[in-house]
Amino acid sequence: MFKSIKDYMEIMSSDKRVHYILLWDEAPYLSNDILKDLKLLMNFSMDSKDCFSLVLLDQPILNNILEKQIHEALKQMIIINYELKIESRNGFNVVIVKTNSGNFACIPDYDAGCHLSTLNDLFWNSERLREIMNKVDAITVAHALQSVAEHIELN
Q1: Residue ranges of the alpha helices (H) in 67-153?
Q2: Contacts made by residues 107-115, CB under 8 angstroms, sequence distance 24+
Q3: Is pLDDT at 9 greater than 60 in this prediction?
Q4: Tens digit of pLDDT for each residue in 103-121?
Q5: Is the pTM of this model over 0.70?
Q6: 84 SS3 class
């Protein structure tokens, strides 16, 4: 089954130019075997192709798990990620990840995610976020990202 998934993703990436983004919530509850499989899946043709991005959510606990020697290779594949708690009329978490395809925001409370420009790009980010959430919350998130842009290394 692993080989068929690998082959399918390679074909979709090279022939159809599809880039998958796998978001996995509650990542600390993944077994060691699943984490090893994810490492293998991310490692195939990695030197020459970027077939998908993996976003593992629930970072504070996950960081402790990834400190184990058995997961060292997977941890090295994680580029950058931040989790923000935004307080507004609806408080929610936003996870921002730098992938090989650019910046990506995941909003678990909305079961949604989207690609972003630089964190300072208020117009682009507002427009992209409005596609996955209501206008007021999208503008709130875009302004919050702009506010933290100078404090985090993502761009």
Answers
A1: 72-77, 122-130, 135-148
A2: 107/132, 107/133, 107/141, 108/25, 108/57, 113/21, 113/23, 113/55
A3: yes
A4: 889 888 888 889 998 899 9
A5: no
A6: strand
